[in-house]
């Protein structure tokens, strides 16, 4: 792939080729081929954003603390040959360089990288710290007017909570999601994956792509900008229709467990052997659903269940009646018949079942990359399918400082 270097305000792009495995030279360029990203971020939100940019073709240089690296390198178990499975899951398509930014020589290396980069991802929560290091947006845009800086933090760089440290679980709690998760009467429940981190990483990605387009489009000003992305803000967007209900009524939403607040039946239901999911979102689907279950003459004509608002009002009566019928057969048999009738339904898989499902495998959602210490490393792929030059998987997650010499040599060659 080619790395594009932007030198200060000049619009001249210098390209040189890095040999990668596998050889992609005969393939059309990926969407972000030629974009250079400096990622000085740890844990999940920033690295996830950087990995996704790398999947789309960007050259991502991961700047890590000398001798220590990204904190997630120590998160485990499990570890594979000393490498954290957590780190491996969100750091493919990157190169690693170790720098101590408090060391004058290393600091100059970082600034040199940023002077020729297109994107800088960082996750320091305090603007004062960025200013002391000369990594604040004013200083960086002066040195490289075309740079897009995405700063990901717990609370952002404005507002009364600006500067506080923040992790995913804090954002889930602050944004109201933990108070809504779980069955009625239960305590707060954390979503088992870091959805605030991943959401912030994806919103940062959207902002970066928009900023790149604004910078480089015909008639554009060529100017970079500062993107302020907060985990709490990203998590609040998950309230979506729940927020809409609160704004409409002023009433605090309550826990509904697996039920949907506005649609019924739209939840897990119990078959003979295990649960399955049904999503009956329209009256047409309700009619078909009743036909598959053989309850046209009973539940379908029952005035308590005639319309979706009726079914919502009488949900506690409806679900046990449906499960009386569903318990007569296994979940897989019901799913087969429901899907054949055009009714959205599916199994409730365990993680191992989901990651080996024929649909997931056929869609290329499992990425395999050969790692020099571990052998084959698998991770979850990019979900967007593009008709031309889509995501590519070129580099295994790097070992700490694996590309120190390579990256420094490129800086020397670029002058």
Question: Your description of this structure?
Answer:
The chain has 415 residues and is an alpha/beta fold. The chain has 2 domains: 5-238 and 362-414, Crotonobetainyl-coa:carnitine coa-transferase, domain 1 (Rossmann fold), CATH 3.40.50; 275-347, formyl-coa transferase, domain 3. The chain is 35% helix and 16% strand. It has 16 helices and 15 strands. Strand 5 and strand 6 form a beta hairpin.
Topology:
Layout: E1 5-6, E2 13-14, E3 36-40, H1 45-55, E4 59-65, E5 79-80, E6 83-84, H2 85-89, E7 94-99, H3 104-115, E8 119-122, H4 127-132, H5 137-143, E9 148-153, H6 168-174, H7 195-216, E10 225-230, H8 231-236, H9 240-249, E11 266-270, E12 275-279, H10 283-293, H11 308-313, H12 315-326, H13 331-340, E13 345-347, H14 351-355, H15 358-362, E14 366-371, E15 375-380, H16 404-414
Parallel strand pairs: 3-4, 3-8, 4-7, 8-9, 9-10
Antiparallel strand pairs: 1-2, 5-6, 11-12, 12-13, 14-15
Distance between the termini: 20 Å
Q: Give the overall shape.
A: elongated
Radius of gyration: 25 Å
Largest sheet: 6 strands, parallel
Strand content: 15-25%
Class by helix and strand content?
alpha/beta
CATH secondary-structure class of the largest domain: Alpha Beta
- Could you give me the name of the CATH homologous superfamily of the largest domain? Crotonobetainyl-coa:carnitine coa-transferase, domain 1
As residue ranges, the low-confidence spans are 1-25
Kindly report the CATH topology of the largest domain: Rossmann fold
Number of domains: 2
Number of continuous helical runs: 16
State the total count of DSSP E strands. Answer: 15
Mean pLDDT: 90
User: Helicity, in percent?
Assistant: 25-40%
* Strand order within the widest beta sheet: 7-4-3-8-9-10
